[in-house]
Queue: 2 jobs
Job 1
Amino acid sequence: MRAWKFGDDINTDVITPGRYTVTTDRKRLGEIAFIEYRPEFAKEVKEGDVIVAGNNFGCGSSREHSPVAIKAAGISAVIAKSFARIFFRNAINIGLPLFVCEDTDKIDDGDTIEIDFKTGDIRDKTKGTVLKVKPLPAFMQKIVDRGGLVDFLRSDGYDNV
Amino acid sequence: MSSMASTITEKILANASHQKEVAAGDFVVADVNYVMAHDSTAPLAIEAFYSITDKVFDKDRVIIVFDHFFPAPTVAGATLHQKSRKFVADQKLSGFFTNGVCHQLLVEKFVSPGDVIVGADSHTCTEGALGAFTTGLGSTDIGGAMATGKCWFKVPESLKFDLSGSPRKGVYAKDVILSIIGEVGADGALYKACEFTGDYVKNASVSSRLTLCNMAIEMGGKNGIIEADQKTLEFLGARSGKIFRSDKDAAYRDEYKIDVGDLEPQVALPASVDNVEPVSAVEGRTIDQAFLGTCTNGRLEDIEVATRIIKGKKIARNVRLIVSPASDDIYFAALEKGYLEELVKAGATVCNPSCGPCIGRHEGVLCEGETCVSSMNRNFTGRMGDPKADIILASPATVAASALAGKIADPRDYL
């Protein structure tokens, strides 16, 4: 899985510019991910690739189109030093796996990455290193395990929290 | 048994989750008083909602506002409007609006102190200026809240911004919050409650308080919040709520003490909101567009100060000045006071109350190489149109002065 490297404060206007988000068509949203900021992304990204970023990934708007676009483009996970909170919730809610990892500086654009989705270990096969991630709080992990908020509310609901 | 000291945010979340007390880091499921989505975020929320259930928890507590692209500028926009209108009709929602920016309408019609309000728009932190816990969420969360009337939260740590002093002439709430964001940084308040307090806040108008809370998200904050006081209650009129106050010894992650008396007018330069400088740093830079409006600064006092600067003069020939009052109530008041007439005479274009140019969808889109000075809250690359256009954020006074000058100007020279 190829690592697509991004910097700090990657905002939702960069991920999905407002002029392109007047749609709920997931396939179309996948095609416009980073359309102006990194036009080659949507064309070259392969199913399973990962995004690796710095601090505050997904800051700005609440638009869920941003994580939807990233997921629809084929990205299997986003690894960042920190995430903006609305993006973080949105990604969990729609079943886009996120990993908080302080060492993303050690991964370069184009590195081959392997993620163990059970342990959260991130293996950089290009560099031969293994990076640790911060586990999610149990409550949020439960939503992830159910596949997102909709399925969590259908299966568990808030009554047993 | 003595209870622990709590912040206003902790107290509201404890009340809404039926607990005696909660602390930062706790996960709670809170009852929500209102759930809001707008034309851009409602369609995905409606999809999520119908995947969970087929009836909203309360038809009077789910609010839909068309403000992001109203009236529809494209077929795609009209199609999404049609989908949301069907939802409003099928669910028999009482709260459906097309006459203002969602946050301003919530402030004018719904918010009460002590409420928990969630909105599918990041600037839902604005409404916290009335002493409520209000926060932005994505569409799936909002769909879940429409279905259940509840939402889960991690109780945030709080930052206290203790603001003192009187601003100098030409310095406004926008300058204060820009200066704070410049100091704290775009992720300096990540996940935190941003509580504004102190003499400056006490003396500030409700409108100015809304401007402060509006931009909490621009430093990563979860909510902006200001304790309700007499001024809040006068503003609310018949609406009452439950007033919560932070305990004196409540725990804050950090406290910032800021004397606003030292401030000059501020601007945020492209393309990040924490890229803040005094206006003098870019004075004289040519502009193509000036925009006065939005949930940040589209209220009557903002239009009033702009009119005071512009009245009887003409805006520069190289500039489009676009004005969008944040709601019909504000539009009517500005009409009645003659502000809109003065602005139009000076060369301004007045648009319907909406988000308009702020999201680059219509009513003032920028092309490559253009610069806009705006009273809005974000200057991200491509936000108002072409990615090679620049956005400079400033107070309504700076926007008005710059529209006259045709370049970035210091409002103190025009007041």
Job 2
Amino acid sequence: MGRYLRKRIIISVSILFVILLVLFLLMQFMPGSPFNDAKLSKEQVAALKESCGLDKPVIVQFFRYIGKMLRGDLGVSYSISPNTPITTLLVNRFPVTLRIGFLSLVLGTAAGLVLGLITAFFKSRVIKVLFNFITLLGIAVPSYMFAMFFSWTLGYKWKIFPMLYDFRSPTFSSVMPILALSLSVMAIIGQFTKAEARDVMKSDYVLLAKCTGMKSSTIIIKYILRNSLIPVITIMASLLVSLLTGSLVIEKMFAVPGIGGLLTTAISSNDYSVVIALSFVYSALYIVVMLILDLLYCIIDPRVRLGGKPD
Amino acid sequence: MASQSSEITDGGLTVTYHLRDDLKWSNGDPLTAEHFVYAFQRIADPATKSGSIYLITDCCMVENAEEISTGELPVSELGVSAPDKQTFVIDLEQPCPYINSLVTLCCFSPCSREFVNSCSGSYASSADTLLSCGPYVMDRYEPLASQIHLSPNKYYYKDAGITTGVNLQVVGDAQQALMCYETGMLDVIRITGELADLAKDDPHLRAFSTAQIYRLDINHQSNNALKNLNIRKAMAKSIDRESIAKNVVRSGFSALERVVPKDFYTRTDGKDFAEDQKKYIEQMGFDTVKAASLWSKGLKELGVSSLELEFVYAATQSKVAEPIAKQLEDNLRGLKLKLTPLPDKEWLHRIDTGDQYDIILASWVPDYVDPTALYTSCISSGNNHRYHDEQFNDTYLKSQSTSGTQRDEILVQLESKILEDVALIPLFSGEQRYLVADGISGLQVTPTGVEVVVSELRKEKE
């Protein structure tokens, strides 16, 4: 296990290094500079570039950046919020995006698991049609449309929830973004759970459990749910990352001061340092989540042995 | 507001502001002239990396600003001083007739050296690291915030009559903003293009003209054909600005047939500088017959029967650029435009470098209330579209050292020269529309500097 962990960490760091290099080079190849302003003279632009170290060769800039990053310094923003440390920008926004993304995942997963298990367990045609309708809707309709629907009904017509994020009541004002984001999660998890649970229900050990007269609830929790979780957890990792990176439209709509808006503003303003830092954080997040998942497999299913050798 | 009086002496080279003696910061500390000195020094200091440096090196030439910005002289050598707590003096290298307008820009706001130092590098990055001297104080702020909250400043030098705070909300989705306005969640919202039709008959709609202008920049060096005056004139006269503004874009644009828009600059005699909107109709007025005749003449002089030009614009401005291109091609026989829509940053890059375009749809926001803020893009040292005219440069310089009616006449000469030479083709001036709920008064939208001024904003108690 320890050996496996070490190996994974080394691979992860190497991947992050490559990602950082590619990002850095891509940003260099993009046209324009953070100081696109027709009112600044060429000399003034050159002086600004020099003060930010952008006049140095790319390779020097890259390793200087890595050095600072290892000391926890992600640099400062050049243009969108000049001289503000990127860590300050992230510290303000990341918790908001993380909270909304995480709660959407929890809500969507819980609802998806319940829906999937119910549909797998009860063979009623009505339940099956209803399940297919809900999950197809959740998968096919983009979350933006749900956001518009909730805004119109729960916000505009019935005035139940605020239509904009409010720092004075962050939880209450996050209800609609969370609902909008969680529907697709619910649909995907529901489909996976149903398919997996059906397979598990046909297995010999469930049949044996039924024959021994075990209670249905025990069979579901102890055997069906647990054995259906592995593929569900795999998909949860990518869902979590896509919730954190892809909730941009929802953030824009509900004026959520999250990280998605920061990324697009930074890209359109050529704020290299912010773009690279955010992309790096996203990549690191994905890699860490995948690593945690691998370890979780081990706990959920003792048959999975990491590293190829039994403990 | 901070200044009780000001005087310009020494042939326009020394500007003195006498401050009120009851000014205080929002933490109760006294506000003195030294804080204005420090604000100017921060802009000049290369360590600040200020993008506003051109304001004190080019727009108004503060003594030694250029040398300080390149690190040749220390910041203490900047031509600003505070002989006493209530007197702030600016020394200029050449007269700046519009200095009083220029210093109202946010970057020249006073700044407390002690407070900035106490923030150890995080100045102005949160509500705790901000000081105010205006009627409001920010009690909720973070860089690029989507929500900012202002509360009355109890140390403001007079009773501003403010009892409640102001919540500033950034809403990226226009439709969502409108719904919030209709439910009473927001009191004032800005109307953008997509909502223009929905709000056009609303009695609460208020329109404010801004000084932003949209224009076609002609690259005077890229293509031989564009050096021909008749070709440029023909292009200027073949665009029906009125119809594009009214029927195609519908919101945010007004037709502009001169460089300075109306309600921007007031002449010495108290009249609007751009009072006569039709003054340059001969050069810029839409006239397809004259345009065609000038075009044929131009082509004949060039010895060609057709022309192909590259028209560059920001992809986000396609709605404006495409009808312009169509009108140019329809009205000028033999003109073929290669349309190049670009992402904003690439488009800005091309404007900055003056390369890789024949004509480009550009916009210009003046920094201060003076026509030269719009003419500066045509002087040889400051333009990217490579227009060069010695006479224009000399007249521009003259405008910096004159005042009163004499200066107004020089400004007219500058405007006439740009339009007669078709150095650029003015198209539209910007306009901003707001929906203002019942019971809300005092909304101010200024053409330069701080766009929306909330200090006079009041809400009737329900």
